[in-house]
Design a protein that fits this description.
Strand content of chain A: 35-45%
Oligomer: heterodimer
CATH architecture of the largest domain in chain B: 3-Layer(bba) Sandwich
Largest interface: A-B, 51 and 57 residues
Shape of chain B: globular
Bound molecules: flavin-adenine dinucleotide, FE2/S2 (inorganic) cluster
Strand content of chain B: 15-25%
Strand order of the largest sheet of chain A: 2-1-7-5-6
Distance between the termini of chain A: 24 Å
Distance between the termini of chain B: 13 Å
Number of strands of chain B: 22
Number of helices of chain A: 1
Strand order of the largest sheet of chain B: 3-2-1-7-20
CATH topology of chain A: Ubiquitin-like (UB roll)
CATH architecture of chain A: Roll
CATH topology of the largest domain in chain B: FAD/NAD(P)-binding domain
Shape of chain A: globular
Radius of gyration of chain B: 22 Å
Number of strands of chain A: 9
Helix content of chain B: 25-40%
Structural class of chain A: mainly beta
CATH superfamily of chain A: 2Fe-2S iron-sulphur cluster binding domain, sarcosine oxidase, alpha subunit, N-terminal domain
CATH superfamily of the largest domain in chain B: FAD/NAD(P)-binding domain
Radius of gyration of chain A: 14 Å
């Protein structure tokens, strides 16, 4: 069976599903904790618009779980994803910075 | 700079697919770009090609014959080397350059890795569609509450049903296919709350009468829903979602004529998933920075202004589908074809083999379809308005901006004390709309709270999708070489 790893635990998926679809199929509706109120979040828009579903995949932070196809052995972590949105007038720069959270444990 | 084709089409939904097919049939070389893993857009969303045997979704679709004909035309053109199909390419910026266009895309075929590419052509057609329009309500940020489009995308794209007991709410005909799809996959759809009254359609009977296809479609859903004993409750709304770490129940209320909940009608229904949607908001991320003129649509959205051949006000730039106004897939297909005909005419393309009279007839037919379906879309918008009093559902603690977790209380204070006249000002004062989604989710709602009555113009976003600094550095090197 196909599996990827999220926070050290295996999640089965059908080839062709996104990371978010596999998580929802496995009964998980939340996998991220918000920065301000520390609330759980998962998939909301399902098409890459809302950024609720953010995860770190194979070390790359700020990835939308609803867009990335699941792959065998992929390593997904749900630690804190830091974003700095610098706004100057109407110009918006979005920078993605990832913190390695392996030592802080997960947020389940 | 070398050009990859005569025309770049961004978006391979119903509009982009039909535009690309028609431009190819007219002899042009086309580059078709989409962020998805396969073509089809939202309406014809499919799992990637190699996964379709394992994830079966055909029964959830409509007009599949049309989809296959378009997909076949594209594969033939690809084999012939005239179509450059770029799936899993997310366009993050499009700019005018040397009389043509440069389209910057992140190639995410090997996600999470990404490579940036630049595509160039003298003409550009943007068909980036729309996304679900949202109105916040208490509890909408709980896990298990999704947009109805999100429920549909999980279903059509991954074969996944997000819950076993689902309540749907909002307004518009899109509630019906989602309810039918979920029910077909075994979910119990415990409530479909349609805020509008079906009688609203009687005020504009003309477009309904002239679009019998829509009747048949509606009747089909009614039948499917009846079979699964799903009831659509007109003039009701989901006014609250409850739960600790995920949604466990919703509160449903009957609505008065102005859309305010009628006191004493609230009832609690246990659920494990919720879908909400209030029509759609056009995806204008690429078009606004390109400088094309916008216009107001009946549903309160700003949409890109086009002439009767789908030309925007920027020379060489065309638009088709829901960026020009929300109106459903058949309209998007017709607009795509029309746009391609304009591209062919403007490019002075050599006349294609075949009877010119037949082509002229086809063009006239596309024009008629667009006009007829646009009239239907207008009537649909008027029959399914945002309830005037929707903000009465909000408590001061309700999160309005999901990213920055700004509450309704803070937004109201910014409008009242801070005198903020629109969502841009509210953003400066509260950070609402400043997070990851850049106001895509809260923008329309914040706009309604601040500037009722005026059409919603989304904030200009110079980057349509975040790209990593590493990839940007790689791009600089590429350009220098
Ligand atoms: C989530 C969702 C699900 C829907 N499901 C249905 C349904 O089941 N039935 C129904 O009748 N209607 C549905 N709709 C309504 C839908 O909008 C259709 O009317 C129809 O798909 C519109 O066609 P279109 O070609 O204009 O846009 P879309 O079908 O939205 O196509 C736009 C395409 O552009 C691509 N795109 C957007 N931005 C970029 C970018 N920056 N770079 C690269 N590619 C980009 C998208 O990936 C998409 O494939 C849905 C809408 C949404 C938002
Ligand atoms: S769920 Fe909205 S971006 Fe993934």
């Amino acid at each position: 069976m196909n599996e990827f790893i999220i926070d050290g635990r295996p999640v089965p998926f059908v080839e062709g599903q996104t990371v978010a679809a596999a998580l929802v199929a496995a009964g998980r509706v939340a996998w991220r904790t918000t920065r301000v109120r520390h609330r759980p979040r998962g998939v909301f828009c399902g098409i890459g618009v809302c950024f609720d579903c953010l995860v770190t995949i194979d070390g790359a932070g700020g990835r939308r779980a609803c867009l990335v196809p699941a792959r065998q052995g992929m390593n997904v972590t749900t630690g804190e994803t830091v974003t700095t949105g610098e706004t100057a007038g109407t110009t918006t720069t979005v920078t993605t910075v990832t913190t390695d959270t392996t030592e802080e444990g997960d947020h389940e | 700079m070398s050009e990859q084709g005569d025309l770049i089409v961004v978006g391979a939904g119903p509009a982009g697919l039909s535009a690309a097919a028609a431009a190819l049939a007219g002899g042009l070389r086309v580059v078709l770009v989409d962020s998805g893993t396969t073509v089809g857009g939202q309406y014809w969303r499919h799992p990637p090609e190699h996964a379709r045997a394992a994830i079966r979704t055909d029964d959830l679709h409509h007009r599949l014959r049309e989809y296959r004909a378009l997909a076949d035309a594209l594969s033939a053109a690809r084999t012939a080397g005239r179509l450059d199909l770029r799936t899993a390419h997310h366009v993050w910026s499009a700019v005018r350059e040397d009389g043509g266009f440069a389209v910057h895309a992140a190639d995410r075929r090997e996600a999470p890795a990404e490579t940036l590419v630049v595509l160039r052509a003298p003409r550009l057609l943007v068909a980036t569609g729309a996304y679900d329009r949202q109105l916040p309500f208490p509890g909408w940020d709980l896990p298990g509450v999704l947009t109805i489009g999100g429920l549909q995308a999980l279903l059509k794209g991954g074969g996944v049903t997000a819950g076993g007991r689902v309540a749907l709410g909002g307004t518009g005909p899109f509630l019906l296919p989602v309810a039918a799809g979920l029910a077909a996959r075994g979910a119990e759809v415990v409530a479909v709350c349609e805020a509008a009254s079906p009688l609203a359609w009687l005020r504009h009977p003309g477009p309904l009468l002239r679009n019998p296809g829509k009747w048949a479609e509606g009747a089909g859903y009614a039948l499917a829903l009846a079979r699964h004993r799903v009831r659509v409750r007109p003039r009701t709304a989901i006014v609250r979602a409850e739960g600790d770490d995920r949604v466990t129940a919703v509160r449903i209320a009957s609505l008065a004529a102005d859309g305010s909940p009628r006191p004493g009608t609230e009832r609690r229904v246990e659920v494990d998933a919720v879908g909400v949607g209030w029509g759609f908001a056009p995806q204008l991320d690429l078009l606004v920075p390109l400088g094309c003129e916008l216009t107001a649509a009946e549903d309160g959205n700003a949409v890109v202004a086009v002439d009767d051949g789908q030309r925007t006000t920027v020379p060489g730039l065309y638009a088709a589908g829901e960026v020009c106004g929300v109106g459903g897939a058949p309209l998007a297909v017709a607009e795509g074809r029309l746009a391609a005909e304009s591209v062919l005419a403007d490019a002075g393309a050599a006349p294609v083999p075949g009877d010119p009279a037949v082509r002229a007839e086809r063009l006239a037919a596309a024009r008629t379809t667009v006009a007829r379906q646009r009239a239907f879309a207008r009537a649909m918008a008027l029959a399914h308005p945002l309830p005037a009093a929707w903000s009465e559902w909000l408590t001061d603690e309700t999160v309005v901006c999901r990213c920055e977790e700004v509450t309704a209380g803070a937004v109201r204070a910014a409008c009242a004390d801070g005198g903020a006249p629109d969502h841009r000002q509210v953003k400066q004062l509260t950070r609402a709309g400043m997070g990851w989604c850049q106001g895509r989710m809260c923008g329309p709602a914040v706009h309604c709270l601040a500037a009722r009555g005026r059409p919603y113009v989304p904030a200009e976003r110079l980057v349509a999708t975040p790209v990593t600094l590493g990839a940007l550095a790689g791009l600089d090197e590429m350009e220098e070489q």
